[in-house]
Amino acid sequence: MTAPPRALLFDVFGTVVDWRSGIAREAAPFLARHGLRLDPHAFADAWRRRYQPAMEAVRSGARPFTRLDTLHRENLDAVLRDHGLDPAGVPAAELDALNHAWHRLDPWPDAVAGLLRLKARFVIAPLSNGNVALLLDMAKRAGLPWDAILGAEVAQAYKPRPEAYLRTAEILGLAPADCMLVAAHNDDLAAARRCGFGTGFVARPAEYGPGQAKDLAPEQDWDVVARDFGDLADRLGCD
Amino acid sequence: MTAPPRALLFDVFGTVVDWRSGIAREAAPFLARHGLRLDPHAFADAWRRRYQPAMEAVRSGARPFTRLDTLHRENLDAVLRDHGLDPAGVPAAELDALNHAWHRLDPWPDAVAGLLRLKARFVIAPLSNGNVALLLDMAKRAGLPWDAILGAEVAQAYKPRPEAYLRTAEILGLAPADCMLVAAHNDDLAAARRCGFGTGFVARPAEYGPGQAKDLAPEQDWDVVARDFGDLADRLGCD
């Protein structure tokens, strides 16, 4: 990357928000109410493990583009069944409410302040696999000051398919080289780099809880490597 | 409309921003430089007159969805030709710069303050025929505090096609009845109402300049009729 980017596009789950704590927090009363003796964090992990396989059906073309709220809801049914609870016996409104826990995740403590600084200099938007309504509800609740809500649903393609990155740049009217993906995940950055994006790595070593073994450090010479969003703003020359 | 809406979707050109003054302001030095003895406001009107016919080719299916930046640029070439200037003789960068005047329109004086009040209570987003990059640049420059950038490009359909309204509601995860279109144009509101949207009319009697003859008053019993965005916020119970 030679010139500074004009737009910063952010991975969201793990990079901006702490999905594991948020899902565990909302799952805990649900699990207790239904007599499921399962650690809420383990439940969050189990639900999240079904995330990539569900999107893979869309990426492969086996299934038309389906927004993440729908995939999350199907995965919730499956993970409940895995733990011996028949979702057909739970009121749909209760399952939908738990499914919307993904709309109510908390940002990492540095995220909002860092984004506000970055926003003064760059276009900032999510480039997430989350759907628009999910990202919008999350932003309203948490105060994430996005300039626009972009990502898989607008691009009609899930990361790491190149279309997810390239269509986002195109919608912004920018060349890929004018866009930087910011993510806590090396594989997401690798896919963005293959599309010509700049890359910014921010480690989130607590994303997967105390036993996290991956994405603890950059695996390529990413254009920027920052400790958190405040450090990212410093390194990108923001006031 | 019985319940209050959850999302307010805004027409933009004319309703939020004063396109005629903005285009005239940026066209004036261009016209002078190229020796075109034409009132800049008349030039803005002539450019705008080609807006609906260009979108009609997309609405009718004669042409695949094409973003407004592209239609504006084609229309610019045509309107220059109409006035005796061959666009092939003008550097493309200069034409592109003038075309981007649509990204730099000023809001009506009440718009930003009104939107900030409305944003505290509702999801606010454009539902404009403008493309994402145009609306995003405009918002950054003018401080329009949108929660998301929606509209024709995201819905892949131009208003007043019903898909433009219905897909926007669907992306928001809302029923049409939970959405209200705010517009200065009776025909836009009529199309939104046919889709089940709530409707808010704000007259902009200077949109077309001193001779404006249409949209000076509501033509149906719209759910809310307001003087400006501050009055709209009052009527919708905002602090």
Specify the oligomeric state. Answer: homodimer
For the largest sheet of chain A, list the strands in their spatial order: 3-2-1-4-5-6
The top level CATH class name of the largest domain in chain A: Alpha Beta
Q: How much helicity do the residues of chain A have?
A: 40-55%
CATH superfamily of the largest domain in chain A, called what?
A: HAD superfamily/HAD-like
The CATH architecture of the largest domain in chain A would be 3-Layer(aba) Sandwich
Give the SSE string of chain A: EHHHHHHEHEHHEHEEH
CATH topology of the largest domain in chain A: Rossmann fold
Q: Look at the structure and give the mean pLDDT of chain A.
A: 97
- The low-confidence parts of chain A are none
Tally of helical runs of chain A? 11
Question: Which chains share the greatest interface?
Answer: A-B, 20 and 20 residues
**Range of strand content of chain A:** 5-15%
Structure, explained:
The structure is a homodimer of 239-residue chains. With 239 residues, chain A is of the alpha/beta class. The first copy, chain A, has 2 domains: 7-18 and 105-235, HAD superfamily/HAD-like (Rossmann fold, 3-Layer(aba) Sandwich); 19-103, Putative phosphatase, domain 2 (DNA polymerase, domain 1, Orthogonal Bundle), CATH 1.10.150. In chain A, 45% of the residues lie in helices and 10% in strands. The first copy, chain A, contains 11 helices and 6 strands. Chain A has helices at 19-33, 40-49, 51-59, 68-82, 92-99, 111-119, 132-142, 152-155, 162-171, 186-194, 229-235, and strands at residues 7-10, 123-128, 150-151, 179-183, 198-202, 224-226. In chain A, helix 6 runs parallel beside helix 11. The model of chain A has no long low-confidence stretch (mean pLDDT 97).
